[in-house]
Amino acid sequence: MIQWVSLGSGPRPVPQPVATPLVWATAFGGAMALVAVLNALVGTDRPGLALAALSLLSALLGVYARFIAAPGTAALCWLFLNGFAIPPAGVLTWANPRDTFWLTCLLTAALTGTALARLRQARAAYRRLTAHPPPTPEPPDWPRPH
Asked: pTM, whole model, 2 decimals?
């Protein structure tokens, strides 16, 4: 078995984001479950509530994802918002101003979550690296001046 190992030494100051396919799978399952729960509790006549909930889901997923995952996360959430959170359920439609706004909101939420997570991780890494600078080695005893 081949095992890939990092050639860097020491702990990484910034954690690795979650793999993009895993983020998209979570967006698919989370959006489906969220829209199903909202439809059962509130109904399909309140798309603003569904948009807010899916935007929150996009931002939360963005915290753990790479920037490249944001468009796919937003698109998956939009598919469930458009297809199942507004009547007629199960039919994808495109109403230009509304759906453009929804996609923009979902994409902005995902990008904002990712950007905030990267800033938080960079600040924490900077504090870790500057709080305890590596010890400087003692000068050798040899050669001794006479």
From this structure: 0.80
